[in-house]
Amino acid sequence: xxxxxxxxxxxxxxxxxxxxxxxxxxxxxxxxxxxxxxxxxxxxxxxxxxxxxxxxxxxxxxxxxxxxxxxxxxxxxxxxxxxxxxxxxxxxxxxxxxxxxxxxxxxxxxxxxxxxxxxxxxxxxxxxxxxxxxxxxxxxxxxxxxxxxxxxxxxxxxxxxxxxxxxxxxxxxxxxxxxxxxxxxxxxxxxxxxxxxxxxxxxxxxxxxxxxxxxxxxxxxxxxxxxxxxxxxxxxxxxxxxxxxxxxxxxxxxxxxxxxxxxxxxxxxxxxxxxxxxxxxxxxxxxxxxxxxxxxxxxxxxxxxxxxxxxxxxxxxxxxxxxxxxxxxxxxxxxxxxxxxxxxxxxxxxxxxxxxxxxxxxxxxxxxxxxxxxxxxxxxxxxxxxxxxxxxxxxxxxxxxxxxxxxxxxxxxxxxxxxxxxxxxxxxxxxxxxxxxxxxxxxxxxxxxxxxxxxxxxxxxxxxxxxxxxxxxxxxxxxxxxxxxxxxxxxxxxxxxx
Length: 498
Fold this sequence. Notes:
alpha/beta; Aldehyde Dehydrogenase, Chain A, domain 1; Aldehyde Dehydrogenase, Chain A, domain 2; 2 domains; seven-stranded mixed sheet
């Protein structure tokens, strides 16, 4: 059986002491094992990055950018293979995996602008013969810890920008679906990245804790659940590291009485059930304003969901695939059971989908639940599965109060034809990413991604302009070259522009 190793200083390394099974979620079968790094192996990766840093730091930004241009080409050339690796270990349908990869490639494209992004600022004659300017200098060795649900895209949020800013990188991807991430890192070497600049260690908490405590790691970027994000942030910052830790979500969509209901239903189908709901931006709650809107939404959603197709990644006719593990399948079903037990109505039941030929897969069908209330467990917590819950309220203000009261503030949207309502919503909702008739308001690569409240720990968002700030330190230089023969007197007062 194939064993997935680590990429350290340009070479694949396998310890062989500890391993973990990697499953095909569609079949439920173990297909590979992943080597779990010890503290020593992680330290070897950090040492390789530390050794590579001086030369990479001094590499001109345009040369770093050229590596990214070639890397982008290789990602596009090998897109089908990357999508297949994602499908085999995550279960994501091929068309969805290709979409994930494309969003990652867009971040590589942004990183190709490094010479422009790192220019800094310059001011001449801030005082007599005195010039001042700022520079963006790299931090050193930085780390990324990424989740299973986007094994290609989320790492591409991090390391392309970190690298073009002059840092060296150690990536700890999810041990549940590591193959595509490792393969993508190997393509970086093919693109001309020097050995040691980018390293990948597969592992569990031992690997994570090593990265968080090692003094050579200057910054940590993380995406995952809120409890782990909080742990990552508190531990990293306690050890003097810069940290951004993106956590969980409970994304709401307000459906107004004037909404184009057919359009809203079409949008909600993809936003709630795409990628089996295993997205931090998945829309898991529809807040219907008024019973008429709620009834219309339930009726049209029920009808549309009858055509949903769940199955294996190899069939592009499928809409979404299995969830990641048997344990997660049971957890999602448990939330559905809990909602029903607490008085909600399961309108479309996806607890026992029939997928011919894949009876042992980790499948949950699209599920629609009506009459959910804020006190229910299924409402309070992130389900991370193909489940859409409907909450009924009577006014838009009640809907907004519901959203603002939730501990998460990642993404939200409103479906309406009313421009005044949309503007009021976007101005007053306490959520980091907002859509107006756009159910998945994920920022493009030249903006930045991040939520509010307990969906983000740290000051800076992921990728885009915030990534330059996160992966660099600003240095300001002020210099004077006095004219020949001119000697100035001593001053003890604070220097000012006279």
